[in-house]
Each structure stands twice: as structure tokens, then as C-alpha cells.
Design goal:
Length: about 150
């Protein structure tokens, strides 16, 4: 009596199922990876805004008012507030408003056209006991990329 040898290898349907599963996983993972890399690049923008906010808060605590001159360059901010801002990598423009302490940074080079050219704004409000509360705002940054409070 002849014995049949066992099959070795995969059938066509098994290979197609594996390829379909890999395709589905890639369709989900690639956009999520892209979103996370844009968020990581925007972290530099939000961190710079936070450092400037701390310096503006210290200025307010010392002087009792916000800086009276408009600071529109990284050099002015470094000279006046002692904070270095890495303009050029992911920050195109930085501005600290005169008299109101509003900090505005414009994002660039993030790799996301919906984010490049948008602004992140931090607006201070002084509470009755003299504490400063910062509110995020800005124009055009999609909700998925905005910093959480």
C-alpha cells in the first residue's frame, strides 16, 4: 500500500489571508505613526512656549506687570527674559505681546501641511490672588495635534 506524503508549505488562501492582515495593520499603523511624529515635533513648540511663559510669569511676579515692549525675535526674548528659543527648526516666528504677555509661536517643518504655518498662542490671565493662568489658543492647529491641558 502506498502512503501519501504530508503536504509541506502554505496554500494560496493562507498566504492571501496573511497578506490581508498585514495590509490592514499597515493601514492603521502608518497614519498613527505619522500623527505621533507630528505631535513630537510640536512638543518643541509647546515646550518653548512653556519656557517663555515661565519667564513672563517671573517678570510679572517681579515687576507687577507684563513686559511693556513687544518681543518679536528669539534674540530679544533671550536678552529680555533669559530664555533661548530654537527658532528655525520647528518654530518659524515667535512673539511676546507688549503689555499683555500673550505668547505666539508659528509652527514650521513638521511634515504636516495642516500644521505648518499655524500658530500656538498662550494667553495669561491673572487671578484675584495674583496667580497667572495660561490658556492655549491659536489658529488652525487641528484638534488631534493641540496640547492637552
Amino acid at each position: 500500500m502506498l502512503r501519501k506524503r504530508g503536504q509541506k508549505g502554505f496554500t494560496l488562501i493562507e498566504l492571501l489571508i496573511v497578506i490581508a492582515i498585514i495590509g490592514i495593520l499597515a493601514a492603521i499603523a502608518i497614519p498613527m505613526y505619522r500623527a505621533q511624529t507630528v505631535k513630537a515635533k510640536l512638543t518643541e513648540v509647546t515646550n518653548s512656549a512653556s519656557h517663555i511663559a515661565s519667564a513672563v510669569g517671573a517678570y510679572f511676579a517681579d515687576e507687577g506687570f507684563f513686559p511693556v515692549s513687544n518681543m518679536t525675535t528669539a534674540a530679544e526674548i533671550k536678552t529680555s527674559l533669559g530664555v533661548a528659543v530654537p527658532v528655525g527648526k520647528y518654530i518659524a516666528v515667535v512673539d511676546v505681546g507688549a503689555g499683555n504677555g500673550v505668547i505666539t509661536l508659528t509652527a514650521t517643518n513638521t511634515g504636516e501641511p495642516l500644521v505648518d504655518g499655524t500658530t500656538l498662542e498662550m494667553s495669561p490671565s491673572v487671578t484675584a490672588d495674583g496667580a497667572i493662568v495660561w490658556d492655549y489658543g491659536g489658529s488652525g492647529i487641528p484638534v488631534a495635534y493641540r496640547p492637552k491641558k
